[in-house]
Amino acid sequence: MLNLAAVQVMFAAAGPAKNLPGTIGRLLGLYLALAMALQLLLVARLPIVDRAYGMDRLTLWHRWTGMAIFWLALAHPAFVLLGFARLDGTSFLATTVSLAKQPPVLLGMIGAGLILVIVVLSVRVARRRLSYETWHAIHLLLYVVVALGVLHQVYEGTAFRVNLLTQVYWWGLWAFALGALLTGRLIVPLLRNARHQLRVGAVVSESDDTVSVHIIGRDLDRLPARAGQFFLWRFPGHQKWWRANPFSLSAAPNGRTLRLTAKGVGATSAGLRDLPIGAKVYAEGPYGAFTAAHRTRGATVLIGGGIGVTPIRALLEDPELTGHVVVLYRVRSAQDAVLLGELRNLADVRRARLHVLAGRSAAGYQPFEPEQLLALVPDITARDVYVCGPDALTTAVLDSLRRLRVPGRQVHAERFRLAG
C-alpha cells in the first residue's frame, strides 16, 4: 500500500501528459513497473518469505500479480499509443509503426509481447498441454522481460525523474527486487551447493514407474531442510541445465542423506532411473511451509494422493509431528500405492491410523466428500490437515474442508505451481 501511495505521489508530481489517454497510459506504466517488481520478489523465493507464507499462498499472489501484469501490459501501451495518435492526428496503426522505429519504444513493445506469451501459456488449458520442462523453460523469458523493462524505464521513464528523491526511491525499489532475485535464485543456491557437494548415493526402484534417489554430500546436518519441504533438482551432465523439477523429500532429513521419490511422468523424472552413482546434483531449496512447524493443534490428518504422498511420508517420520496422526492415502489401485510398506511401518511405530483409499472415483465413491471425511476422521475440525496430491484431489479436499468449517489456519496444502 505504501508503494502504491508513493506511485500516486510521483505521478501527481510529474504532472499530466498532453492529453487524457497519454496521462492514463503514463499512470498504468507506473503500475506495470510496480507489479513487475513485486513479481520479482515473489519468484525470488527468499527463505524468510517462503517459511512465513508457504508456496501455496505465494502461488496465489503470483497468479494475481501475473494477471495484473497481463492486463497492464495490454492497457499501458494501448493508451500511450492512443495519446500520441490523437496528438499527431494520425491513426493508431500508423502511430504504432512510427514509434516502433524508436529503440526504447520497441524494447517496451517486445517486453509486453513476451509478457502476453508467458501469461497465455500459463492459463490452465494451455498449461495442461505442456510438459513441466517446457513450461519452466518458457518462464525463463521472465528474465528477458525484466531486462527489457529496466531498459525501457531508463529511456522512457518520466514520473520518477521529477527530483532526486523520486529517483532514489524508484531505483532503490528495483535494486531491492533485483537483489532479492539474485540472492534467492543464484547466490544462495551457488553457496549451498559449493558447500554441500551433493551427489547421487543410490538409485532404488520403488515400482515399474517410480524411483527413489538417495542424495549424499558434505555437512548435510547443517542444511536447513525439514520434512515436508521440497527442492528444485538438477542433474548436470545427465540432463539439460534448464530441466529442473520440484521433488519433495520422501524421508525426513537425517543429517546424512536426502531422499526424493518421483514418478516417471516427465523428461526429468523419467531419467532419474538412469542416473549413475556419484553423479553431481544441483539443488535449489529447501522450499515450502508444508512442515510441522506450522501446526496449530495437537492432532493431525495427513492426506496424500498418488506420488503426492512423498511429503506425507516424510512428515509421518518427523519426530516434531507429535500427537495422534491419521493418514489418508488416495490411489487408483493398491498396486499404485508407492512407499506403502514404509507408511505402514511408520504408522505402526507411532500408533497412527492409515487408510488406503483405493479405487476410481464414481457416483457412489467419493472419499473426500465432507460426509466421507467425517466418517474417516470424526474429529477432523479439531486437527491440522496437510494435503498434497494431484490438483483435482487437492481442490476437492480443500473444498470439503471449507464446507466442514475447518479453520483456514489448520489447513496446509502444497501445489508446486510457483515452483520453477
TrEMBL record:
SUPFAM superfamilies in UniProt: Ferredoxin reductase-like, C-terminal NADP-linked domain (SSF52343), Riboflavin synthase domain-like (SSF63380)
UniProt protein name: Oxidoreductase
Compartments in which it is found: Membrane
Organism this protein belongs to: Actinoplanes awajinensis subsp. mycoplanecinus
Gene3D superfamilies: Nucleotide-binding domain of ferredoxin-NADP reductase (FNR) module, Translation factors
UniProt keyword annotations, A-Z: 2Fe-2S, FAD, Flavoprotein, Iron, Iron-sulfur, Membrane, Metal-binding, Oxidoreductase, Transmembrane, Transmembrane helix
Coarse class of the protein's main subcellular location: membrane
Pfam families attached to this UniProt entry: Ferric_reduct, NAD_binding_1
All copies of domain FAD-binding FR-type, residue ranges: 193-293
InterPro entries in the cross-refs: FAD-bd_FR_type, Fe3_Rdtase_TM_dom, FNR_nucleotide-bd, MRET, OxRdtase_FAD/NAD-bd, Riboflavin_synthase-like_b-brl
Annotated TM spans: 29-48, 60-85, 105-125, 137-155, 167-188
Membrane topology: Multi-pass membrane protein
GO CC, one annotated term: membrane
Cofactors: FAD
Gene Ontology terms for molecular function: 2 iron, 2 sulfur cluster binding; flavin adenine dinucleotide binding; metal ion binding; oxidoreductase activity
